[in-house]
Amino acid sequence: MSFESVKTASGQPSSHVQSTVTISQVVTDIELVSRSTLLEATLSSGRYTEFCDKKISLCKDKTESTIWSFLKVREIDDAVNIVLLLIGAKINDLG
């Protein structure tokens, strides 16, 4: 809901005020609100690996799962070795 008042210049001592009231209905997607709340809680708590694990478990295709796996790796101590595994490199062949 919003309100707006506009004073019109009429050149007369008492100016006329035009008012507009706009009413809008906001549709709330409960699933979107739930996912947003979860993301906000994750960002404030710093529990990124758990969040990524949940997202990985819910993925329906390999590409999306791989993206979440790379995001998760950023929070893991042994990130280099895990990234190498994710891209298909054999650690023993690199040394």
Provide the fold topology:
Layout: E1 2-7, E2 17-22, H1 30-45, H2 48-58, H3 62-73, H4 79-86, H5 91-94
Antiparallel strand pairs: 1-2
Helix pairs in contact: 2-3, 3-4
Describe the structure.
The protein is of the alpha+beta class and 95 residues long. The chain has a domain at 47-94. Helix content is 54%, strand content 13%. The chain is built from five helices and two strands. It has helices at 30-45, 48-58, 62-73, 79-86, 91-94; strands at 2-7, 17-22. Strands 1-2 form a two-stranded antiparallel sheet. α3 packs antiparallel against α4 (79-86). It is elongated. It starts with a strand and ends with a helix. The model has no long low-confidence stretch (mean pLDDT 81).
**First and last CA, distance:** 65 Å
Give the percentage of residues in beta strands. 5-15%
Order of helix and strand elements from N to C terminus: EEHHHHH
- Unreliable segments of 5+ consecutive residues: none
Biggest sheet statistics: 2 strands, antiparallel
Residue-averaged pLDDT, rounded?
81
